[in-house]
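for the recovery benchmark. tokens below, seq after
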């Protein structure tokens, strides 16, 4: 059976998405450095291509695991956007809820999806010892 590289791709995605989220936080502090997001995005594509290996067809277990992660992520994103819209409508500072909040939410959703995939894909310790 060929090696499935989904785990490596999700690990690299977690690292790069956390980097992009940190850049968004730092760019709010230092607004003249918005170009760093492009650099990290290009680094993400390079890392996935170099270390992730070829993107192979999904097996049944990967489809099941990815489906569970996608379902939970969808519910969390809908709830988060609902809460963000409620806070934004009642906020005195409407400028706080600009596009960056929604970009940050989308990045958090990708991060949650990758973390959930890795969590569901892990092997229990009892099976590793055998």
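predicted aa per position
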């Amino acid at each position: 059976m060929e090696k499935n590289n989904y785990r490596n791709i999700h690990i690299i995605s977690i690292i790069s998405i956390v980097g992009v989220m940190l850049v968004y936080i730092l760019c709010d502090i230092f607004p003249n450095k918005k170009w760093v997001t492009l650099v990290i995005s290009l680094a993400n594509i390079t890392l996935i291509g170099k270390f992730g290996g070829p993107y192979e067809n999904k097996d049944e277990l990967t489809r099941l695991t990815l489906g569970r992660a996608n379902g939970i992520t969808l519910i969390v994103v809908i709830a988060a956007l609902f809460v963000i819209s409620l806070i934004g409508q009642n906020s005195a500072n409407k400028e706080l809820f600009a596009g960056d909040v929604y970009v940050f939410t989308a990045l958090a959703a990708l991060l949650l999806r990758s973390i959930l995939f890795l969590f569901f894909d892990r092997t229990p310790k009892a099976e590793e010892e055998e």
